Amino acid sequence: GQQVMQIPQYQHVQEGEDFTTYCNSSTTLSNIQWYKQRPGGHPVFLIQLVKSGEVKKQKRLTFQFGEAKKNSSLHITATQTTDVGTYFCAGTNTGNQFYFGTGTSLTVIP
Amino acid sequence: NAGVTQTPKFQVLKTGQSMTLQCAQDMNHEYMSWYRQDPGMGLRLIHYSVGAGITDQGEVPNGYNVSRSTTEDFPLRLLSAAPSQTSVYFCASRRQGGYEQYFGPGTRLTVT
Question: Which residues in chain A touch residue B92, judged by CB atoms under 8 angstroms apart?
């Protein structure tokens, strides 16, 4: 079956440092989404990437979709305490079934 | 709009008991789905529906039933609860042709 792996599982950074999480799929994806889940909360949609090599930015967050559409990354510049949470990627090749990565839990140390 | 609502928030069951987790959305979204979240495993799709009267299995459907009689509601039934079903369950919806999934607040289920 389709697998979406995500690394690292945990990341602790000092406030102001950068953070990156990586997502890899065993199969080619039609699109990939990114979600953020605060502790005790539910996943909240951040963005969707569709095109090969696509790069999108949201303020300090930069999202990339690989050329082969099998991997993606989320990079946060100059982390803040409000960035704390778990970041998930979710890929699909059918549009109906989304396969979530295992998530990266980000801790920001003030 | 209330968005996606789920009840109950917490539930404790004994092995073998049955129950229904409720999910409702008021955004007129055609697509609804159920996920379970376990530590270190992300979210896994249990069942999904692309519209009233249409359901399909996801990645981990065993032990769960769903039905979709209306656009608004998508209940998840546990037929005979097992400790392996201890998890946090999330319902999500999105409009057909859209891509953003809206998640409910979750139901934390413990099976003893």
Answer: 43
CA trace torsion B100, A101, B19, B47 (10° rounding): 60
* Nearest CB neighbour to B99, from listed A33, A41, A44: A33
Smallest CA–CA distance, residue A40 to chain B, in Å, is: 9
**Rg of chain A (C-alpha set):** 13
User: What is residue B101's DSSP assignment?
Assistant: P
- One pLDDT digit (tens) per residue for chain B, 112 residues: 789 999 999 999 999 999 999 999 999 999 999 999 998 788 999 999 999 999 999 999 999 999 999 999 999 999 999 999 999 999 999 998 778 999 999 999 999 9
**What percentage of chain A's residues is helix, strand, coil (to nearest 5)?**
5, 55, 45
Residues from chain B contacting residue A45 (CB–CB below 8 Å): 100-102
Pairing between β-strand A104-109 and β-strand A10-14 as defined by DSSP bridges: parallel
Strand B54-57 vs strand B43-51: parallel, antiparallel, or unpaired? antiparallel
Q: Which residues pair with A63 in a beta bridge?
A: A56, A74
Q: How many CB atoms lie within 10 A of CB B96?
A: 10
Cβ burial of B35 (10 Å; 0-12, 13-18, 19+) is: buried
What span, in angstroms and rounded, lies between the C-alpha atoms of B21 and B89?
9
Choose, out of A7, A58, A93, A100, the residue to mutate when testing the contact with B (most B CBs < 10 Å): A100
